[in-house]
Amino acid sequence: MLSLHIPTLSATLLKLSPSSNSRTKTQRRHAAHFTFQPDPVPTQYGPTQKMNLFQSVTSALDNTLASDPTAVIFGEDVAFGGVFRCTVGLRDKYGKDRVFNTPLCEQGIVGFGIGAAVAGATAIAEIQFADYIYPAFDQIVNEAAKYRYRSGNLFDCGNLTIRAPWGCVGHGSLYHSQSPEAFFAHCPGIKVVIPRSPVQAKGLLLACIADQNPCIFFEPKILYRAAVEQVPVEPYTIPLSQAEILQEGSDVTLVAWGTQIHVMREVANMAQEKLGVSCELIDLQTILPWDTETVCKSVVKTGRLLISHEAPITGGFAAEISSTVQEECFLNLEAPISRVCGYDTPFPHIFEPFYIPDKWKCFEAIKKMINY
Amino acid sequence: RNRTLDRCRQQPFDSTLEKPQFPGASADFVDQLDFIQPNVISGIPVYRVMDRQGNIINPSQDPQLSKETVLNFYQKMTLLNTMDRILYESQRQGRISFYMTNYGEEGTHIGSAAALDPNDIVFGQYREAGVLMYRGFPLDLFMAQCYANADDLGKGRQMPVHYGSKDLNFVTISSPLATQIPQAAGAAYALKRENMNRAVICYFGEGAASEGDAHAGFNFSATLECPLIFFCRNNGYAISTPTNEQYRGDGIAARGPGYGMLSIRVDGNDVFAVYNATKEARRRAVAENQPFLIEAMTYRIGHHSTSDDSSAYRSVDEVNYWDKQDHPISRLRHYMTTRGWWSEDDERSWRKQSRKTVMEAFERAEKRLKPNVELMFTDVYQEMTPGLNKQRESMWRHVQQYKEHYPLDLYDK
Fold it and tell me: Is B224 close to A102, i.e. CB distance below 8 A?
C-alpha cells in the first residue's frame, strides 16, 4: 500500500531539477489581472457570514432546498459536492433524490431539467463549464425559451435555472474560459445573469430560481475562491434586469459584468488619478433582458461609453449595447462608443495575458475617448 | 417506492475471486475471442393479440374490454380518420397552411391512450392526435389550432397539428424532433417525487430515435429510475428515409436492453396488443420506478405531411397493402362484427354522423377571426418587459400608419 508521507520519485526529481530553486520569470505562473474588490457589508438582509463565491452559491442552494420541497439539483458530479464545491454538503443534508448526479450529457441535463420544471419541480441544472453548454443549445433555445409562448401559456419551464462556471481563470484555455452570454442574448424567452461577487451571486441566483422564466446563471469561476465577502445567511433576492451603478461619475460611462467589473474598478481609479477623468461604473448584471434605461441615462450624462468583456469582440454583447446606445443617445455622444474585448480568436492558453481586455487596454481606450 | 432488484450497486472489491472486479461491468471472464452478433435476421418478436383479420389468436390475451369501451376505440379511430381526411383536403384547398395525417397509426394512439390514467402526462412528437382525441379534446379545438383562430389554446403561434392541452395533460407539441424525450424523463422524475401514482408516456418515431436527445432520454430515465413509458411508433419512414437507412440494428426495441431498460415490440396495428403492453408497462413503471420501451410496429399510410408526395419514394402497391390488408381500424371492426357489436347500418350511420360533426366544427373554425395581434408579444416571458412593450407600441404605430397593407380585418380586436 503506497504510503503518503514518503516522497515519491517524481517529487524527488523535481527537487533535484537545476531550475527548482531559482524560479525564473518563465516558470512563474502569472498573477491575476485584477484584484477582487468586496462590496460594503450588506445590512438589510440580516446576519452575515464570511463566504467566498462558491460558498455563497452553496448558501443560495441550501436556502432553496430548505424552503422549496420540489427543488432538485442535478448535473455531472454534483453529488460529491461538484468540481467547484458549489454543492458540498447538500446531498447529505437533503437526500439523494434531491441532489444527484446525471450521466455525462448536457443535452440530457437541460432536457431533463425542462421536463422536471414543466411537471412543477424547481429544477436547478448544473453544466460543468459554460464551454460545454452547446450540446444543450437546442434544448435551451428551441425548447426552454419558447415553451410558454408556443403553448399559449398552457405550459412553461419557468422553474428551470441553469448554472455554469464562466470566464477566464488564468490557464483555462479554449474550453475552460469561455463567456458564451452573447449566444444566449439573441434568444427571446430566457434570462441570462452574471454576478460580480458572492453577495451578488447569492441574491441574483435566488432571484433566478424564483423567477418564473428559464434562467441561465453564469458564475465567474476565477472568483469562486478569490472573491470573499460578508454574505447574508438568510435568503434574499437582487432584482433581475436592473443594472447597478457602482460609482457615479461625469465623464465616461463604463459598462461591464462579472469578473471584468473588478478590472473596471481599477481602470476608473487609474482614469481619475492619471487623467483626472471621472468614470461612472455600471454592472449590467442581467444580460438578457438588459437594463437599457440605466445605461442610456448614464451616457446621456457623460457622453462617452466604454463596454468591456472577455468574450470575442465580433458579435459580443458589447455590440448590442453599443448599437442601442447610439440609437438612443446619438446626439449626446462626444466620442465613438468603445469596446475593449477579447480578440476574435479562440481563448488561448499561454497567450492569455495578451488576450484578455486588461486594465491597460481599457485605460488606453478611455484616453482615446477623452482626446477624441 | 423501492426497486425490488438492486441493479446498480457496485460489488465490493475482492481480488481473491477470479471474477472481473471492474466497476464498469458485472460479468464473467471468457478466453474465446468472439464478437457478439447483432441479431437482425430474427430480431425481437412482435407481440400481437389479433391476426391481420381481427381474430383473437390466444384468448388469454384478449383484454376482454366492454362493448362500450371497444365501440369507443373504434369511433375514436374512425373520427380521427375522418378529421384527417377533411383537414388534409382543406390544406389542399388553401384553407389551412399545413397538415399531417395519422393514417394507419390510429391503433397506436387509441390503444396506448386507453391504457393510461387521465392524469398521466403525455409528451408527443406530432403524429399522436388520436391520443388527444381519446382523452376528449374537442373537434373545435383541433380545428382552432389548425386554423390558428382566436379559439386556439395556443394563441395562434404555431403551425397546424402542434396541439396542447393542460387540462388533458398533453404537453404542447414542438417541431424539433426528439426534444421531448429527455424532457419526459425529467417530468417523470418530478412525478416520482410527488408520489401521486402518475406516469409519463413519451411518443416518438423511429427516425427521431436517431437523435442524440433520444439516447439522452433513455439513459437518464434508466439511471434516474423514472416512471416512464417510451412509445416508439416505428412506421417505416422518416419522411422519405426508410428504416434501413435509419438504423442498422434490430429497430428501437433492441436498444432498450443497452440502457438497462425493459423493452417490447408490439404489432402497432393491433389495438389490443398496444393496449395490453401499455397497460402492463404503466403498472410496472409506477410500481417499480423504471422506464419501459414499447416499439409499436406500424405503417405510415399517408404522406409525411401536406408538403410531401410519398409516391416519389415508395410504390402505391406497398401503401395499398397496408391500407387494405393490415389496418388497425378494419381489424378492430372485424373483432366487433364477429361479436355482433357493429352492423353495416351502424357503420353507415356512424360515418355519416362523424362526417357531419367534423364538417360543422370545420365551418365554425373557418369563420372565426384570428387572435388579437397583441398576442404576438405576450408570453415570451411570464411578464411583459419594457423592451417588448416598446416594440409592441412601435408595431401598432406602424400598422396604423400603413394599415391598408396589413390584414387587420381578419384579426380579433
Answer: yes
